Amino acid sequence: MAALVARIIDRHHAYARRALPPLGPLVAKVAEVHGEHEPRLAEVRRLFDEMAARLLARLDEEESSTFPLLMARGSDPAGVAAAVARMTAGEEALRDDLARLAELTDGFTPPGWACRSYRLALAQLEELADDLRRHLELEGGDLLPRFAGRP
Ligand SMILES: [Fe+2]
Fold first, then answer.
1. In three state form, how does the secondary structure of the chain look?
2. Cα of 37 to ligand 1 centre, how many Å?
3. Which residue of 31, 53, 62, 136 shows the fewest CB atoms closer than 10 Å?
């Protein structure tokens, strides 16, 4: 389990911390420049900002409290159950964000008239979405089920 947690942090948390900060201004710029032509870009921007804040807060919480709690021997079972429930709820919210983002961007497909920045923003959003899906799969599909059934 320590190896799984290390892999989640080293691969997916590190990627998110690297990818999110430069992507925010790029998405904002594309929304400002092309929002008139593609009104859904304003919603993409709002959703991205919300999702980025949600994701960064989750990384911090996992690293500082949830993972240490799960890995410790003799953690209070009620505390573990509450942490697992919180992580699961957060995962659902992020999956909803991803689905909405894909819908708003026609599956991250730029329109024919899109400029280089627009295409780059969508390509990077798609990369983020793919990484986040794998990340959530490791946490929700691999890590948390180890605690399922605990009182
Ligand atoms: Fe995570």
1. CHHHHHHHHHHHHHHHHHHHHHHHHHHHHHHHHHCCCCCHHHHHHHHHHHHHHHHHHHHHHHHHHHHHHHHCCCCCHHHHHHHHHHHHHHHHHHHHHHHHHHHHCCCCCCCCCCCHHHHHHHHHHHHHHHHHHHHHHHHHHHHHHHHCCCC
2. 36
3. 53
Is residue 14 very low, low, confident or very high in pLDDT (cuts 50, 70, 90)?
very high
Ligand 1 midpoint to CA 62 (Å): 6
Ligand 1 center–CA 19 separation, angstroms: 14
Cα–ligand 1 centroid distance for 133 (angstroms) = 11
Domain boundaries, the chain: 2-147
pLDDT digits (tens, 9 = 90+) for 97-124: 999 999 999 999 999 999 999 999 999 9
> From ligand 1's centre to the CA of 32, what distance in Å?
31
